[in-house]
Known about the structure:
Two copies of one chain form a homodimer. By secondary structure, the first copy, chain A, is α/β, with parallel strands linked by helices. Chain A folds into two domains: 1-121 and 291-321, 3-Layer(aba) Sandwich (Isopropylmalate Dehydrogenase), CATH 3.40.718.10; 126-286, Isopropylmalate Dehydrogenase, CATH 3.40.718.10. Chain A is 48% helix and 15% strand. In chain A, helix 7 (154-170) packs across helix 13 (323-332) and helix 10 (232-260) runs antiparallel to helix 11. Chain A is globular and about 60 Å long. Chain A starts with a strand and ends with a helix. The interface between A and B is large, with 63 and 63 residues.
Amino acid sequence: MRIAVDAMGGDHAPAPIVAGAIEALRADQSLRIILVGREDVVQQALGQVGSLSPKESERLEIFHCSQVITMEDSPVAGLRQKPDSSIVRLWQLLAERKVEAIVSAGNTGAMVAGGLRLRRFLPHVSRPGIAATMPTMQGPCVLLDVGANVSPRAIHLYQYGVMGAIYAKHVLKKEKPTIGLMNVGTEEAKGHDLAKETHAIFDSSPLRDQFIGNIEGRDIHRGVADVVVSDGFVGNVVLKVCEGVFDFIMRVTATELARHLQLERDRAQQVIHQLVETYDYSSQGGAPLLGIDGICIICHGASGAKAIRNAVGMAARLAAARLNEIIVQELETSPLTAASVEVG
Amino acid sequence: MRIAVDAMGGDHAPAPIVAGAIEALRADQSLRIILVGREDVVQQALGQVGSLSPKESERLEIFHCSQVITMEDSPVAGLRQKPDSSIVRLWQLLAERKVEAIVSAGNTGAMVAGGLRLRRFLPHVSRPGIAATMPTMQGPCVLLDVGANVSPRAIHLYQYGVMGAIYAKHVLKKEKPTIGLMNVGTEEAKGHDLAKETHAIFDSSPLRDQFIGNIEGRDIHRGVADVVVSDGFVGNVVLKVCEGVFDFIMRVTATELARHLQLERDRAQQVIHQLVETYDYSSQGGAPLLGIDGICIICHGASGAKAIRNAVGMAARLAAARLNEIIVQELETSPLTAASVEVG
């Protein structure tokens, strides 16, 4: 399994990126990792992670490139103006099948735009979508799209449902995943035109038995659906709102516990610290861009080494599970595929 | 100050609604309250709240109506098929200026549709919006719209910014409130067409000094903006996601603290309980439907007596603050008003 990692992408790159990639390399002997970035910078970061065994070194490569698309760069302009950037090179490596998977914590918009520009989508997929895993009372659920496609059509949302259900089954291990449509109320007639059209497509699709209809914002964390389908604008806002609320509540709770406890104050702070570790959105690894021919994992800009290690691990698992082949098969046998390709 | 309260609306109506209304009546001697609902049902609920003094009884009235729009009713069909429902009667009382304010925890869609049907909007307002107050690290902020208008135009969002800023100044007491536009990234070119158009309007408006541009989901609870402008679809999802995340985290935290603490376990549970009380979205009182000629407060379906008491108190404060007059003045002097009326 060959995985290219964007050594330059992320708020704290390259140190935690390189450290996380090396941790993943050490944990899985079947991995070959290509660190993409400025060679001197990457070498320096590598110097900080401790020496590698000869066997480990054999599985590591640096792919030098001279440019970086920053968080501030406009995605499209960045791709055009920086042809030798790590993000452009990642996509080329994937397109040329020199790697099975790519991982980046860099400019999300540029990563997505890079994929869209190549148009290496899976057969029958009109638009890729980013799938984020969220904790719920009933175990993890997958929310998609969280930002690849801010103005989708209904058929795109249907395809997100198909891909999300496959992801939930094969990665989250839900036997027959339920699918909910993000909306402002549970009644069928709720929401804007896009929501109503999407509801109608699901209702007459092969997924209708798994489709539980509209769900509301508060249903996500209750675990009402294994797959939550949303346009990329709403999904992105939801994902980041969760992060903000979590951070807010954990701070307030820590302060209040410190104020009111005495004997077990430290113990309580450890509990809070552990919860932050467990649920912190910036350590969650990454979110796959589903619908791409290849595996692409997009990480939180604030990713640390642990998040990158998890993201590389996820990339390896998705590639090994042949998730993309299953998606293509499922969409191939779907009566809606013809329509989706036509209007997509 | 005369306030009509929907005695029939809410998941637990009428008992907590009537109890909350009576608490508000007792707390503010300038209030006159009209309980709107089936007389026998309301009388029975009144029997449970303890006897009123003659002076209190003088300030209380029951407005009998025979029907109820339930949570399951379609808003538009409900209004048409149930002309003697409490929600229809509330709007009539407001339209006939028999009350200054109306309060309901009933079917939100029907409440909004009732207001839209009457079209008693403030001059220069194209569409009313629901304004929800949210806690942040920097004190409360106001998010609007949270569900009245799921497919708005850019000019509607601009008007929400105007009304939200007035609300933040006069109710949340922010001297010069900052306004952020809900989006998927902070860069100006981010988001869908609606977001870009709205950004452009704010940038060339009298509010441009207060407009801080796009904000992301995680910025809300950081308190980055005093006013968060959003379409009603996104705002509704955000509000309910916050509720869901909060509920989820508080449960998980309570469980973990119970598991790891011993001596101060009870004290820690009290702290969590107190936080739930403080931040619980269903006890927050209500959210005003801004842009209506009159005061309309929409409460959470799960509202208890405390939430209703707070909502009635809020209605009284908004009426006393002459918020609507300020909104009209502000929109009148805005160079965009002509345009807004034209395209509204």
